[in-house]
């Protein structure tokens, strides 16, 4: 029994020690109602592929066979993000549905020091606060890819 307890304690300490560090210097998003109508393809994918801030595009670096082994190209982005362990720190998911604060994607666009890696887009101005809110709201709503219902539901 004592050996089992000791093993449990050691396993717990090991798991805690390997957890991603907490982010810091995060942007404070203005108080606003949660956007319950975020559509992945129209809102989130557009942030990845569209012009942001001073002309940065996520897909300029995050295309197939690129930075962090993370393609944000339209055909691949959702599958490369949701419930996928980070290549930089497998203890944290790139996107953990219903938990923006626990998702590396949100930390990297919201925090100067995300706890793992660098703020994105690297070397460019941060995403606009409205873009950060869209990503946060999408993750907190389950990070679904919902084009069918969003476009055709009556």
Explain how this protein is built.
The structure is a single chain. This protein is mostly helical. It has one domain (37-152). It contains 7 helices and 2 strands. The chain has helices at 2-18, 40-49, 58-61, 77-81, 104-110, 129-140, 147-152, and strands spanning 24-26, 111-113. A two-stranded antiparallel sheet has the order 1-2. The longest helix is centred in the N-terminal third of the chain and has 17 residues, at 2-18. The chain is globular. It starts with a helix and ends with a helix. The model is unreliable at 1-17, 52-56 and 149-153 (pLDDT under 50).
Any key phrases for this structure?
mainly alpha, single chain, 7 helices
Neighbour order of strands in the largest sheet: 1-2
Percentage beta strand:
under 5%
Summed over residues and divided by their number, the pLDDT gives a mean of 80
SS class: mainly alpha
- Give the radius of gyration: 17 Å
Runs in which pLDDT lies below 50 for 5 or more consecutive residues are 1-17, 52-56, 149-153
Biggest β-sheet description = 2 strands, antiparallel
SSE order in H/E notation?
HEHHHHEHH
Number of helical elements: 7
Helix proportion range: 25-40%
> What is the strand tally?
2
**What number of structural domains do the residues give?**
1
Global geometry? globular
In summary, what is this structure?
The protein has helices at residues 2-18, 40-49, 58-61, 77-81, 104-110, 129-140, 147-152; strands at 24-26, 111-113.
Give a topology summary:
Blueprint: H1 2-18, E1 24-26, H2 40-49, H3 58-61, H4 77-81, H5 104-110, E2 111-113, H6 129-140, H7 147-152
């Amino acid at each position: 029994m004592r050996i089992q307890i000791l093993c449990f304690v050691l396993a717990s300490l090991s798991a805690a020690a390997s957890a991603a560090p907490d982010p810091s210097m995060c942007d404070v998003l203005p108080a606003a109602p949660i956007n319950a109508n975020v559509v992945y393809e129209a809102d989130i994918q557009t942030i990845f592929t569209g012009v942001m801030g001073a002309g940065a595009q996520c897909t300029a670096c995050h295309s197939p066979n690129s930075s962090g082994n993370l393609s944000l190209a339209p055909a691949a982005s959702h599958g490369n993000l949701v419930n996928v362990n980070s290549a930089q720190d497998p203890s944290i998911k790139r996107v953990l549905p219903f938990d923006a604060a626990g998702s590396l994607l949100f930390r990297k666009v919201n925090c100067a020091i995300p706890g793992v890696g660098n703020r994105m887009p690297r070397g460019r101005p941060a995403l606009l606060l409205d873009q950060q809110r869209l990503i946060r709201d999408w993750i907190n709503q389950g990070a679904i890819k919902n084009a069918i219902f969003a476009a055709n539901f009556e």
